[in-house]
Amino acid sequence: MGELMQIFHMNKGEGEASYAKNCTVQRQIISLGKTVMEKAVYDAVKNSLPKSMGIADLGCSSGPNTLMAISEIIDDVRDTCHEIGLPLPELRVALNDLPGNDFNYVFMSLADFNHNLNNNKGIPSDRCFISAMPGSFYGRLFPINSLHFVHSSSSLHWLSQVPVGLDHNSGKHLNKGKIYISKTSPECVVKAYLRQFEKDMFVFLRSRAAEVVPGGTMVLSFMGRASPLASAEVGTHQWELLAHALMAMAKEEVVEEEKIDSFNTPYYAASAEEVRNVIEEEGSFVMNYIEGLEIGWDGGSVESHHDFEVSSKAQIVTQMIRAVVEPIMESHFGSQVMDDLFRRYTQLLQHYFSKTIAKHVNLVISLTRKF
Question: Which residues neighbour 230 within 8 Å (Cβ) at sequence distance 6 or greater?
């Protein structure tokens, strides 16, 4: 986990390949869960009636989405207090991500954010205190019973590590030519990914169980799948196309094939049933809601397949994927091949989009800490 914590982050800054410029999908995912979040915030306030309310955004990343989510949560707290006749509590907001996250980008936005709180929302700066908490959410981050509402979007599909047992087996790589689960992956690879997801999700829930007050709530939103099969195309195919691009580079000796065989993505698109099973096993939370919502690869609805020319859509999606995966790919394959890799990826996407409506499934889950 230590090595992954150092190298795993979104592309920094504000350049063309930055996450800040290429986070439309993640922004749309936050919007999809808006109604669920409103209800969960209402329950958190009503259940606890806090004078000082602890709020955490886990896996906050950087860019415009970070403070957008917090702004919506604060709006929901204010509206709830107005509805039930409570004064607005003091708000303690913690932004969490791994230490390599571009927190500076977020900090530089805080002056405008606080100005907006004061002038447009009527919330003085001495009622809202924003801090950063770097570290992995697969473990404790906050004091016991200090949080009333937890939000996490587009983060929990990332595992704490590459699943154990994929690196070598009697000197052989188990997932040759692939970088994630595919239809040709051995069953032992699929099982290793599921075991790692179950372990990580259990630790996540157990850690939050200590930190969230009884009656406190969480809204979790992350990539999943509708099919019971882990190798289903929805949830895997963006990785499959990256593997195809890498293998084409290996045939031309641009990268070593062994480099591809030894790389496995620390990611898992879970089914609703797999998530439900871990929540029930850990036992600290009541699940109020779970649903898989479809969203296009470019952040649009799945009905808007023809809104862009295929070539334009492929370029947009490439930039989005690159902003997320480039740091971890670069650490393994080297920076010198990244432009070539994503150029090939764009070409594969053009062909894929010409015949397929490409969509993700995003799981939205609402939980309440048991009393």
Answer: 181, 190, 193, 194, 236, 268, 269, 271
